[in-house]
Design goal:
The complex is a heterodimer of chains A (184) and B (390).
Chain A (H helix, E strand, L loop, with lengths): L8 E6 L13 E3 L1 H6 L2 H4 L3 E6 L5 E5 L16 E15 L3 E10 L5 E6 L5 H4 L7 E11 L2 E10 L7 H18 L3
Antiparallel strand pairs in A: 1-2, 1-3, 3-4, 5-6, 5-8, 6-7, 8-9
Chain B lengths: L12 E9 L4 E7 L2 E5 L11 H8 L4 H4 E6 L4 H4 L2 H7 L4 E5 L5 H10 L10 H16 L8 E3 L4 E9 L2 E9 L4 H14 L22 E5 L2 E5 L12 H8 L7 E5 L13 H5 E9 L12 H10 L2 E4 L13 H10 E6 L4 E9 L8 E6 L2 E2 L17
Helix pairs in contact in B: 4-6, 5-6
Classes of the chains: A alpha+beta (184), B alpha/beta (390).
Chain lengths: 184, 390
Amino acid sequence: MSISESGPIVAETAPADATMSTSGNKAEFLTLEAILAKPNSESANRTQVVHFNGGSDTFAVRHPRPYLIPLPRRLVREYFIALQKWEGYVTEVGQDTFHARLIPLLGEGSDLEAEIWIEEIDGEDRTLLQPGAIFYWSIGYLDRPSGRQRTSIIRFQRLPVWTKRELEAARAEAAKLKELLDVN
Amino acid sequence: MSTSQLNPPADDELEVSVFGPGYGESIVIHLGGGKWMLVDSCLDPNTGFPAPTKYLADFKVDLASAVKMVVATHWHDDHIRGLSAVFRACDSAQLVISKALATNEFLSLATLYSQRPFAETTGVDEFVRVLRMLGERKKRGAQLSPPTYAVTDRVLHIDSLQLASLTVDIKVSALSPSDASILKADLAFAQLMPRENLPKRRLVSPTPNHASVVLWVEVGQHKILLGADLENTADPMTGWSVILDEAKVISGKASVFKIPHHGSENAHENRVWPEILHPNPWAVVTPYRGGKKPLPSPTDVERIASLTNHAYATASARQQKIRWGERVVRELVKEVAREIHGVYAGWGHVRFRQKITDPAPNWQVELFGDAYPLSGAPKLPSPDTIPHRA
């Protein structure tokens, strides 16, 4: 079965004995959450066709009588209260530290130059630690039911890759600029 | 701006004004007779306007006609902020750029990075804006004047000035980049060009800076050497060595020296001082605190002060206390960062003026804002000088 990674999964409800076809049936489309929220009697004895958006494969299943399942309430709530936030970019990477320029996004001050301990960066983000890499450094309080905690978070930005189209567009634009420069 | 700062130079007065650092550095030169040239651009942190054009506008100078030349010594952010606004205002000025920046490699790199996904400019976006302005001028129907490319020994500007019965020659020449430097810069730009499917990152400037334009300005008997950010290298065909060994446009000795690359050791070439500078020249340095170590370092200041007692800085490179808003921020920063310092180093203006008709150098010095004399230099009287902030 092919499942679209980006499209939402929707469920289609129809009479129990109907032959289901995605294209020819003007059925009521509901989200799975909506189906779960419907009264039990409405959904009983129906066949449900589940169609994964973006794919061509469909299949019919006899849907068991759904039960109302109360959504779990979040028992734990956390709030991060940012006091200072910088956008930074790496200028040089050393053995134990890296150098970076910090531009304030929130809080006091002007631009800063910092040498930051690499051990402050988590394992996954360390692979991104290269000259030119962009990161965000937030300092503040993490408020939990268990109490307040002082927190420093450095997260590296996962920028998209350069595409062939972007590189070609840059070269084309450069060629236009070159024409302006080469008038003589 | 202080009242004495607003006094324009007389027609027969030569002026070299150096602004910075704020967000970069910039130089304004009065060539005499109401003609000006501008070198690089930086933003006045108090107003956010480009410092060179704001200074001239305060004199009621007609920027569109009086500014003859705008030079971009290189593309680094601390030399180019606001340059597109400067070039737009100075509508008839000749644009001078390093020949190293007219290559396909650099232009591709510049256009690629001119749309930036992060807050801080890299300098290339400003540079591309300046070049696109050439296209706008063409669309307006103006005669397209392409940039003049600076390369060793190229004469960029020739003019003359009539002062009473005296005719004064004006000549501005480039001392760099050399052919070898252009080649090296091109290779460096090619290496910086990203490949397909590699993650985007911010453009990081290559070092050393091979593209920088050093200028030699002659007005009558007086010579000025503007060192830009040119650094020394081990290769005798690049950096200061090739200028000293090969440049043919240098005649006589300069009495004013804009010290290169914020006074760094890398940019110091001992031979420059005895070979092409007047004894005890008037020298000015612009601090830079954006790197790993603030420039000039105390050692750099000591060295400069030992070479002349007319040395000045537009502001201090000394460590300034960071004002943390919250105690918890200060404490956590200390845990996470081994070292941290502010990039802003104050804002000042060093102004040298000299009668063009005086045969010997006798520059009058005025200091404004955070500008101050480096140790050994006499503190010169200026009613508007604001003492250096500790």
